[in-house]
Amino acid sequence: MKDGNDKRSIFGEQYQKSFLRFAQGIMIPVLFILMWQYLSSIGFLNNYLLPSPSKIFRTFIELLTGGSVIKHLLISLIRLGIGLSITICMAIPLGVSLGFFFPIQKFITPTLTFLQQIPAIAWIPIFILWLGIGESSKIALIVYASFFPVFLNTLHGIQAVDPKLKEVSYAYRLSMIASIYKVYLPSAAPFIFVGIRLGLSNCWKALVAAEIIASSQGIGYLLMEGRDLAQPEQIFVSIFVIGIAGIILDLGLRYLEKFLLPWSEI
Hints:
This protein is mostly helical. The protein has ten helices and no strands.
């Protein structure tokens, strides 16, 4: 009974800490929205250029019940999932390979360093020219935007494996494949998850930019539709949805990391 009470007490403390962090985190946004609503209600702000929070919320409910927000957001998330999956399948094996074969890095690193300095949005015109305005160009942009964080963090994670763990693999005479799966990948996994989180953030922003420039669907298109229709409240709804969706995706990856890697301290 004592152990059960202790577990409930620990869970209760964690819940209280989580709630306190949440309350502290939303304090400034709530105060900002209240001030914004007050200034709008007294006519201090131009409601056409800067709609009140209540008007934006009503527009959000209309778009939500009408299905526009869900439809465009789902399309963007599908694109994001496909592109990030391709990145993971490419970047992690390459990072692991270069982590083992150090001499090859001297030949590849300068090229990768050059490409890393070019923002993903700069490639949008050439991707559209090569691949058209369909899904291929957007997926290519997502892969480019997310590749380097995942690759570099994987490479760093493989190189940062504790030498004592390497000695253990040598002592047990593990093959290279067995060493990778039993020693290197578990040790590098926290770094890899950090790279995936950074890659997710990069490709989410790049995808929205691509949808703004050339797309007929997606949350970025919904934003530009608000501009074309001279509806600033729809623009703000799109902006808030983009930000909230990004936060939820990042939190989802954090919880997935805690679930899969309970030993992680990064």
